[in-house]
């Protein structure tokens, strides 16, 4: 697996193809994901098929980037079930507190980015009564999530062994704690086909930079960078770089890294670097 690191490990550059091949055995049901980075930014890659009937709710946003094949993100939008199909090559920003259930298929690969949970934040795994047109909660668990790869499967296992699953009727163990918050009623924005968007805006991207998801109220920043020299500053959070086309050179202090297409870069908080792109496109993502 090809990984480049700065001496203080503030900058890490990962060959994504190599990393996925090395960690492929970790993409196992029911969730099928494996973390690449797990500090403030939770960057994980997800295979398929998965086997999930649960809906997940969290207080932060999630970035979905579908690399190979399509996926379906089942959501509850203002109380109504809806399927959001995220096609190969598309990116989608899921707002906070939206009930969602990722459905992934064999031979597919996607990247999902979340943020670390604050100590007073809770996630929820919720199941609904089957066969009802209006979503009716059947069983749920609220908990503080530390590790999405490790913490979700035990909750799913608990439900699969519950009486409520077999009766499809709420019971004594359905709701053990009061809900930490109500789901969002926000109207969702359609996924963006990244290659098409880049082609249509290439002159603007190369002239300066272009922000994605501008029509959404968001606590994240997703920016496309083109030709030129770009001064990067992670600020008080982590900065993620996903190289889409061509390659770039990342300079951090006296250290220099070549970043080819489909490499993933994580820059730790309070770090500055210079990215030079002669011919290529880089997507940057951070929580603001």
Features:
288 residues, mainly beta, Jelly Rolls, 2 domains, 9-stranded antiparallel sheet, 5 helices, elongated, RmlC_Cupin_sf, oxidoreductase, iron, RmlC-like_jellyroll, dioxygenase
Word description of this protein:
There is one protein chain. With 288 residues, the chain is mainly beta. It has 2 domains: 19-167, Jelly Rolls (Sandwich); 192-287, Jelly Rolls (Sandwich). It is built from 5 helices and 21 strands. The chain has helices at 16-23, 148-160, 163-167, 194-200, 202-207; strands spanning 3-5, 11-15, 33-38, 41-46, 55-57, 62-68, 71-77, 80-86, 90-94, 100-103, 109-115, 123-128, 137-143, 192-193, 209-211, 220-225, 228-233, 239-252, 255-260, 263-267, 272-287. Strands 1, 2, 15, 16, 17, 18, 19, 20 and 21 form a 9-stranded antiparallel β-sheet that branches. A 6-stranded antiparallel β-sheet has the order 3-4-11-6-9-14. The radius of gyration is 20 Å and the shape is elongated.
Number of domains: 2
Form type: elongated
Count of DSSP-assigned helices: 5
Task: Give the H and E element order.
Answer: EEHEEEEEEEEEEEHHEHHEEEEEEE
Approximately what portion of the residues adopt beta-strand conformation? over 45%
Extract low-pLDDT stretches: none
Main β sheet profile: 9 strands, antiparallel
**How many individual β-strands?**
21
CATH class of the largest domain: Mainly Beta
Write the CATH homologous superfamily of the largest domain: Jelly Rolls
Roughly how much helix do the residues carry, as a percent range? 10-25%
CA radius of gyration: 20 Å
Catalytic activity: 3-hydroxyanthranilate + O2 = (2Z,4Z)-2-amino-3-carboxymuconate 6-semialdehyde
Organism: Bursaphelenchus okinawaensis
Binding site for substrate: 62, 104, 114
Subcellular location: Cytoplasm
